[in-house]
Amino acid sequence: METPLIRMEDIHKWFDKTYALRGVNFEIYKGEVIGLIGNNGAGKSTLIKILSGIFPPSKGRIFYQGKEVKIKTPKDAIDLGIETVHQDYSLVGEKNVAQNVFLGRELVKPAGFIKVLDTLRMEEIASEKVRELGLNISSPTQEVRFFSGSERQGIAIARAMLFKATLVILDEPTTALSVKGCRQVLDFISQLKKNRIACIFIDHNIGRIIPLADRFVVMSHGQIIENVSRENTLVEEIEELLVSC
Fold first, then answer.
1. What is the pLDDT of residues 105-114, one digit of tens each?
2. What pLDDT, on a 0 to 100 scale, did the predictor assign at position 175?
3. 44 close to 70: Cβ distance less than 8 angstroms
4. Residue 95 burial (10 A CB sphere; 0-12, 13-18, 19+)
5. Residue 14 needs a FRET pair 20 to 30 A away by CA distance; which of 100, 108, 145, 240 works?
6. Considering the domain boundaries, does residue 69 fall inside one?
């Protein structure tokens, strides 16, 4: 039997008197796309922030490819190949495409006795990656603040793909996007799946992810209340479940 890429076991989280997560068990396999859905306050963001290393669980264990790991910082998560694309896309608007793709992991080259940024190489690689995702970006030297929401989303995903992510977490990626932008994001997720990169797509709208999700995990009040494959459920059934939460 295949070992899960990530397994979270009996995860609890308290914030003072607020009991945010209540014994959550969650797993995802290599190349799998999971739609993590639930109403506001369900615990979705808390769960992925633990997985992203933003804060630790109050109780529970996390396993990566069968081995228990401690994810205490975002760097710990990145070192495991976990890349999180937050609602703000985790980009710096005043920096260009290449600078954002390599943010914090810049390439350098020798120049005499010192090392300098290999700007040309980073621009070449960034251009190649955004083209692979079908992004219509004319130059890697363009500042990202001039791009649309879906284009910025694509740049963030290109960064995750470049650095060999094994899991990409997309936190409400279609918020405030046009219909065309939403379609592009779904195309990006399809590209991740083709590359055997697992994806957690967090949204409150199941209709956006039904074409690509392998499985739906529904949360309410800090607990998982449904975990079902796409083939074994109807959209209307999960929507009704969300309404009743």
1. 899 999 889 9
2. 63
3. no
4. middle
5. 240
6. yes
Contact 169, 32 (CB under 8 A): no
Q: Is pLDDT at 100 greater than 60 in this prediction?
A: yes
152 domain-assigned = no
Residue 115 within a domain:
no
Mean pLDDT of the chain: 87
In the numeric block, the tokens 């020798």 are attached to 110
Nearest alpha carbon to residue 130 among 102, 105, 99, 101: 101
CB atoms within 10 A of CB 48: 20
Mean pLDDT confidence for 147-174: 82
Q: What is the mean pLDDT of residues 199-218?
A: 81
State how far the Cα of 199 lies from the Cα of 5, in Å rounded to an integer: 11
Domain with 210 in it: what CATH number?
Answer: 3.40.50.300
Main-chain dihedrals φ then ψ at residue 134, nearest 5 degrees: 75, 20
What pLDDT shows up at residue 245?
A: 67
